Model the fold of this input.
Amino acid sequence: MQLAFLEADKVSFAYDGMDEVISGLDLSIGGRGFTAIMGPNGSGKTTIGKLMMGILKPSSGRVFIDGDDTRTLSLGQAGSKIGYLFQNPQFQIFSQNVMDELVFIPRLKGGDESSLKRKAIRLIRLLHLEDKKDMPVFNLSYGEKQRLAIAGILACGPRYLILDEPTTGLDMVRKDMLISILKKLLDEGMGMTVITHDRRFVNNFSGRLLNMREGRIAETVI
Done:
């Protein structure tokens, strides 16, 4: 039995002036393996992802990342443990070209330049961006921007990934590429939660499936 890496304790959440999206949620997710969160639009699945990352704070109850209450964590502290892929990846790309993107945040943390570039090259290979490493970011396709965003997340060395609708806008070839990348990360011990409406994509993995409806969860095994 894995110790909980992500934990929700009686969590409720409502956006300002609206009814509760999440109500009395209890959830425990270990630090390894694959978890999918599915549900219809408005069911609260993206809200759960943002609560788990600490982007949103519960209206009541508590969320813990590796034992730390998200109410006491900055986004930077949470981001050192969890990498979060937003639905639109271009909103989390900050540099002008691929290589610069992968050394940008680690360089701010004071990493050795040669080791930063070696790690960037490994990530470029992992994410199949070898022929794009010197390309301006605005020339990348949607799928390439998504893979670059994932590479940028991994460059910061998180223990866990939360991916929000990662297959949106991808054709079958790009989905298959993403599946291959995520399976390799899982094999290397990375844990991940994928928020998605794409059941065909989820069926390529073994793990937990959490079905959201009206702010509550029913769990099955995949």
Q: What stands out?
A: The chain has a mean pLDDT of 90.
